[in-house]
């Protein structure tokens, strides 16, 4: 695996931890839940990639909020249309990580007024459907961007459009860091600022929405048109709504008996 880990430094020097909501499952009435699984993608291979540094800060925050994280390292990823690229180890790794995830974070620099080719290539390698399984459908998504100049929202807007196309639940909040070269110290850690505070907001919100959708996403994206196409009429024994309700009831009963 070439998943890029965060550094051994899990401290949050720019944060005020006393204001953190680290009891999100309990506050949502979901005490005892397993950590949410979040995949993070970034869009630059530069040695000092600000999209990667921002993703690393996001991963540290997600872990503080109780999530389990993986950062995909896109080094060596082939172009989406290269011959036999579906069998490339990096492509298989990315697909497996997407299947593993319940939510994702996409972060791109703004280049020529839009996202980079690298982040688009990663998304292009994620099919809408493969073997009856959808690697992105129903997953939550948080979008972020870094800019070399003044604040812009071109990249996050494009990422939102892609997330919608990939049938993901993109959360309302987002992060756009202007003049990113001024926002990180020599060690690559983000400095205290309103930009940092917004990243905290976005990661907290992502964990909340991912928990709220857990066990319900399949039902929420179940479509009438697809049921017609597949010849799958609603049947209380098999339809997703009934299964979701029954599963939720079992979980509530199990929790109350603890």
What does this structure look like?
Helix 2 packs across helix 6. The chain has helices at residues 24-27, 50-64, 89-100, 117-124, 154-165, 194-213, 217-220, 224-230, 240-256; strands spanning 37-42, 68-71, 103-109, 140-146, 169-170, 175-177. It is built from 9 helices and 6 strands, in the order H-E-H-E-H-E-H-E-H-E-E-H-H-H-H. Strands 1, 2, 3, 4, 5 and 6 form a 6-stranded parallel β-sheet that branches. The chain is 38% helix and 11% strand. The longest helix has 20 residues, at 194-213. The model has no long low-confidence stretch (mean pLDDT 89). With 258 residues, it is an alpha/beta fold. The protein is globular and about 60 Å long.
Annotation field: number of helices: 9
Query: Radius of gyration from the CA trace?
Result: 19 Å
By DSSP, the count of extended strands is 6
> The biggest beta sheet, please?
6 strands, parallel
Work out the strand percent.
5-15%
Structural class estimated from helices and strands: alpha/beta
Mean pLDDT: 89
Q: Level of helix content?
A: 25-40%
Provide the descriptors you would attach to this structure in a database record:
258 residues; alpha/beta; globular
Q: Short description, anyone?
A:
It contains 9 helices and 6 strands; from the N terminus they run αβαβαβαβαββαααα.
Describe how the helices and strands are arranged.
Elements: H1 24-27, E1 37-42, H2 50-64, E2 68-71, H3 89-100, E3 103-109, H4 117-124, E4 140-146, H5 154-165, E5 169-170, E6 175-177, H6 194-213, H7 217-220, H8 224-230, H9 240-256
Parallel strand pairs: 1-2, 1-3, 3-4, 4-5, 4-6
